[in-house]
């Protein structure tokens, strides 16, 4: 009995940790010129909207949060274009952005200028938050090698770090033409288990009844989509192609426990009695 209880607790801890792993990408192992990077098993794509962004390698000009380093993302190849903009996005996992460091300057690498940085979080093409920072940027190398910390736990007095996204977009304004991004800290989310307050990505995209259920249940959707059922360990157990309206589903074959039903835009908890 004690052994079984211990194993159950360990399994729950592993499950919890796998859905909330904080990681910092310092880019030091990434290839110069790359338009993607991999951190904690997740691939992020670097998409340039205005100007040209990629991983660069300039010794001693980055900042890992405590000391200068060599590699980071910037738009050296396209400096001089107004309102440069790029995003880092993953299609394999959802995530929460925690903090990152930026070096901002005009087209001549002069930091003693004015401008704005707009930070946008998006999920499935929908804007989840949009924040503008317009002051308190580093204006010299100082103790941070010229980098400014963008802390999403308290940006303009608001905590954006608990919002689940799949894309983080940065856009400069004013006299800022150059941006370097380093030490990107984020929280991995499998896209299967969402927090209680985060289960509705799109309002009422689908509903299930009854919940808890002994097996049979109805899944009502606003439009046809693919619904997937996952166990607490993140393993895919069942896929259902739904039609608009009421869809009959049976999970009688599943053991008692907690499961998660996910569509491309929403996830909710299912309890099997």
UniProtKB/TrEMBL annotation:
Claim: Signal is one of the keywords in the record: yes
Domain Secretion system C-terminal sorting: 208-271
Keyword field contains Signal: yes
Organism domain of life: Bacteria
Keywords: Signal
Range of residues in the leader sequence: 1-20
InterPro entries: Secre_tail
Pfam families tied to this protein: Por_Secre_tail
NCBIfam families: Por_Secre_tail
Listed name of the protein: Por secretion system C-terminal sorting domain-containing protein
Organism of provenance: Chryseobacterium joostei
Lineage: Bacteria, Pseudomonadati, Bacteroidota, Flavobacteriia, Flavobacteriales
């Amino acid at each position: 009995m004690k052994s079984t209880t211990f194993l159950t607790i360990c399994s729950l801890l592993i499950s919890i940790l796998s859905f909330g792993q904080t990681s910092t990408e310092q880019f030091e192992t990434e290839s110069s010129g790359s338009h993607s990077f991999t951190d904690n098993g997740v691939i992020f794509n670097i998409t340039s909207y205005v100007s040209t962004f990629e991983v660069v390698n300039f010794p001693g000009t980055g900042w890992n949060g405590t000391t200068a380093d060599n590699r980071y993302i910037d738009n050296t190849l396209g400096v001089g274009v107004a309102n440069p903009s790029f995003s880092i996005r993953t299609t394999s996992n959802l995530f929460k952005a925690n903090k990152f460091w930026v070096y901002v300057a005009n087209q001549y690498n002069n930091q003693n200028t004015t401008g704005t940085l707009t930070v946008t979080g998006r999920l499935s093409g929908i804007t989840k938050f949009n924040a503008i920072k317009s002051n308190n940027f580093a204006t010299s190398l100082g103790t941070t090698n010229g980098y400014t910390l963008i802390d999403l736990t308290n940006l303009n007095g608001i905590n954006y770090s608990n919002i689940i996204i799949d894309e983080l977009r940065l856009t400069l304004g004013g006299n800022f033409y150059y941006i370097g991004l380093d030490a990107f800290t984020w929280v991995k989310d499998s896209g299967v288990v969402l927090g209680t307050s985060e289960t509705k990505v799109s309002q009422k995209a689908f509903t299930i009844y009854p919940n808890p259920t002994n097996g049979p249940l109805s899944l009502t959707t606003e439009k046809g989509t693919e619904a997937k059922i996952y166990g607490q360990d993140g393993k895919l157990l069942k896929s259902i192609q739904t039609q608009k309206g009421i869809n009959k589903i049976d999970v009688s074959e599943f053991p008692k426990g907690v499961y998660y039903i996910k569509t491309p835009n929403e996830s909710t908890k299912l309890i099997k009695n």
